[in-house]
């Protein structure tokens, strides 16, 4: 089980990869982000994005799923109070294979809650050509080993 002590500053965790499924991408856009360039091939081609592309929120959801599968599902996670950055520096297209990672930027014990660690995390996703397509920073809260023993 991953606890606060397993997440020191500088640790990098590979979160695996996934290939963007066109039907899932479109279903997400239809429900949550129905902008034309997320729904229609021709509108995407006419946009600055150059083609039908994924909502950034969909891309963030893919990253979050990888984070849950590789870290949170077997951890002492206590949630997150939020983040400071989320950016999508390049578009994601159907069929793109994305690789996900996280880096621990800083880790510290809470001054007010004994046994709780605050872990500043930078998450990234890169397209198969190496292009950065997602960057996010947020704080995760993890119990220390002593708190769960």
What's the arrangement of strands in the largest beta sheet?
Answer: 1-3-4-5-2
Radius of gyration: 17 Å
Q: Estimate the global geometry from the Cα principal axes.
A: elongated
Low-confidence stretches: none
Q: What would you call the structural class?
A: alpha+beta
CATH superfamily: Hotdog Thioesterase
Major beta sheet summary? 5 strands, antiparallel
Beta-strand segment tally = 5
Mean pLDDT: 97
Helix content: 25-40%
Number of domains: 1
Provide the CATH topology. Answer: Thiol Ester Dehydrase, Chain A
> What proportion of the residues form beta strands (DSSP E)?
25-35%
Write the CATH architecture name. Answer: Roll
* Distance between the ends: 12 Å
Q: What is the CATH class name?
A: Alpha Beta
> H/E order of the elements?
EHHHHEEEEH
Q: What is the number of helices?
A: 5
Family: Belongs to the enoyl-CoA hydratase/isomerase family.
Pfam family, one: MaoC_dehydratas
Organism: Kutzneria albida DSM 43870
Protein name: MaoC-like domain-containing protein
């Amino acid at each position: 089980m991953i606890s606060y002590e397993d997440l020191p500053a500088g640790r990098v965790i590979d979160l695996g990869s996934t290939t963007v499924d066109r039907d899932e991408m479109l279903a997400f856009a239809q429900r949550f982000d129905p902008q034309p360039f997320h729904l229609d091939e021709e509108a995407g081609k006419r946009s600055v994005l150059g083609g039908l592309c994924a909502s950034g929120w969909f891309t963030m959801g893919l990253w979050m799923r990888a984070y849950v599968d590789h870290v949170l599902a077997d951890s002492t996670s206590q949630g997150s109070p939020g983040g400071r950055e989320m950016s999508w520096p390049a578009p994601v297209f159907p069929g793109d294979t994305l690789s996900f990672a996280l880096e621990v930027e800083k880790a510290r014990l809470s001054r007010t809650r004994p046994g709780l660690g605050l872990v500043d995390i930078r998450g990234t996703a890169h397209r198969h050509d190496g292009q950065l397509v997602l960057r996010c920073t947020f704080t995760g809260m993890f119990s220390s080993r002593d708190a769960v023993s």
